[in-house]
Amino acid sequence: MTDEKNSIHGGSQSSDAKSIDIFNEHFHLNEKQKKFFYAICGVFISELSEKEFDTYKNTKTKTNISKNEEKIKEFGQINFESKSDFSTRLLDRLLMTTPQHQLARISSMLKKMTSKGMTSYSMTNSSKLFYELDLKQRTDAVTKWSTSQKNSIKQFYKTISYLTCSAFWLNPYDLYPAIGYPGPDPEINGSRFKGRTFPEYEFIEITEDTKDLEFDVVIIGSGAGGSVAAARLARKSGNSVLIIEKGHHYHQSELTLKEKDGYEKLYELGGGMLSEDSSMTVLSGSNFGGGTTIGWSTSSEPSHFVREEWANNFGLNHFMDDEFNDSLKAIQNRLGVNTNNIVQNESNKILIDGCKKIGAPVVTVPQNSASKSHECGWCGFGCRYGEKQSVVMTYLKDAKDYGVKFIQDCFVEKVLIENNKAVGVEATVNNGEKKFRVNAKKVIAACGGLHSPALLLRSGLKNKNIGKNLFTNPTAAVYGIFPNKDIKNYSGTVQSAVCDAKENVDGEHYGARIFVGSYHPAMMSTAFPWKSPLEHKQFMLQYNHIIPLLTITRDRDPGQIRIDSNGLPKLYYKLSQHDADSVIAGLQTSLKILVAAGATKIGTCQVDVEEFEIAGENPLNDIKFLQYLEKVKKVGVSSGQACLSSIHQMGTWYGRMGDDPTKSAVNPLGETWEVKNLYVADSSVFPTSAGASPMR
């Protein structure tokens, strides 16, 4: 393996100095390109004009103006030129979050746009180079890029706007007080933390003297799939089991609950992964515990219609058996899944209230908090209090107690195959400097939807289904502004209510579910499209009064995982019209919920849909609101028209489970058709999208 593999995808390794040096070998900017790059980024959070500042400071908000007046003023006047280190921060963030092949694409675009040829003119309508334009001209140009008919320009805009806004809000120069955000959880060192004991783990240290290792079973991945498989195998069979994790284990005492630390240490590509066309943000865990470490505690079991579809269409009758029901109950009991002692936060109360007022169904969502009240909006950055029953608190602890061994910060290059049988794996540590082998009788890939298909493709498997049938549960959002309510959507219990009014849009049980998310500043700033410097600053100034409603869609039509020249995953996904209809149905219903609950303004994740101000005594029947809903539908969410994301990757990213080797990559027991003793135990084997979190 080349060094890029570990530095890009190895959890905390992705942010170290070495990875940046490696990337700089492949990504060079000359002085002209640097000026252009920073001139673009400087548009997104630039200093407001005197007229804009007057509008900005009159933004209606309950944030304590007198207490934070200087910070609010500083936020309005901030510009990148006054922050000499921001250019370095931007570049570091770009290198951390962008795979090598995407860097090459950005570099190519910068090269074209710094010429005084047709490409430069077509993007600015000026013979001047971009950085020679004044701020207004640059802002006008960038705004037009967001709705460009040229996919390459629109893609470039999405990449740079996402990069800039996230880089700023992950560390906004002590400006959190301007928007009323406290930073890390104020209770971080309180009794909830000090009164708990947490599991301790030891890891095999791989050194230059390490020889080949011998185990009965080696499992790649420590998340929801790998942890359960390890604990059960070690307990039931007495096998010697090794779990290899490419990410790092952070003890609860090491979880800072800072948004920047959370993304950079616990997420794939530092939380900045994009699909190949930049239309979708992809959030995936890269740590010891995987997605369960960063999940929001939501613990919904597969719906009856999903299980029936898997049994009837894929020959997987096990999902309708009592044994599967018993397995679900066992998992729920171990994770403490129930609805006991759930305290709805302000955001979920508004969702519930709005649903009741429009007659939409809404129910409490089970949580994996062992019947304890779990009011922790920072759980996306790891649960410092151990209240969320992630696998670090449960199945990995069980595995450890049964004798399972662990290696962290370790990248598995390939599965070793002899005579069509898996016989172990080849892996590296220290950014590829040390290579070693683990010999095993059985190999289990549990790397998740992104990396299981990449691992098998790197290992030379030829089954045509590997990497196909990718489902993402595409997520889109709308927001409502409640200027007289302190909502603080990031505080309290996360995602504890759901509206299923649009769960069956097409009559075949494909549709959307509506939740509330926990949106910390960087996520909030990138979940909705940038429109102008003024609008962005006004939007963030109202941060504590905004409730985002998420439309999470059960997608019918899949994408695909391929690998790049280094064998790392590339995500290809284009929202079909069928699934776009489900998204739109969810967005329209979400807007009605917000209006019924009393929002004064609403907005969507769509680039070409402006914010709408609510008026009248009967706003749900107001002709202008109904016209607004029609515009939301007409504009749509396809072809880069909206900010989409995926927080669940599943369902045969690597090749579906089934009873037919021509239509699936693994058999009903999870063993690959192509190689004996090679199994898959993660969301990759889902035959279709589950429409719910695949981690529990």
Automatic annotation (TrEMBL):
<dbReference type="InterPro" id="IPR012400">
    <property type="entry name" value="Long_Oxdase"/>
</dbReference>
<dbReference type="Pfam" id="PF00732">
    <property type="entry name" value="GMC_oxred_N"/>
</dbReference>
<dbReference type="Pfam" id="PF13450">
    <property type="entry name" value="NAD_binding_8"/>
</dbReference>
<feature type="domain" description="Glucose-methanol-choline oxidoreductase N-terminal">
    <location>
        <begin position="263"/>
        <end position="474"/>
    </location>
</feature>
<keyword id="KW-0285">Flavoprotein</keyword>
<keyword id="KW-0472">Membrane</keyword>
<dbReference type="InterPro" id="IPR000172">
    <property type="entry name" value="GMC_OxRdtase_N"/>
</dbReference>
<keyword id="KW-0812">Transmembrane</keyword>
<dbReference type="InterPro" id="IPR036188">
    <property type="entry name" value="FAD/NAD-bd_sf"/>
</dbReference>
<keyword id="KW-0560">Oxidoreductase</keyword>
<keyword id="KW-0274">FAD</keyword>
<feature type="domain" description="Glucose-methanol-choline oxidoreductase C-terminal">
    <location>
        <begin position="557"/>
        <end position="695"/>
    </location>
</feature>
<comment type="function">
    <text>Long-chain fatty alcohol oxidase involved in the omega-oxidation pathway of lipid degradation.</text>
</comment>
<protein>
    <recommendedName>
        <fullName>Long-chain-alcohol oxidase</fullName>
        <ecNumber>1.1.3.20</ecNumber>
    </recommendedName>
</protein>
<keyword id="KW-1133">Transmembrane helix</keyword>
<comment type="similarity">
    <text>Belongs to the GMC oxidoreductase family.</text>
</comment>
<dbReference type="Pfam" id="PF05199">
    <property type="entry name" value="GMC_oxred_C"/>
</dbReference>
<dbReference type="InterPro" id="IPR007867">
    <property type="entry name" value="GMC_OxRtase_C"/>
</dbReference>
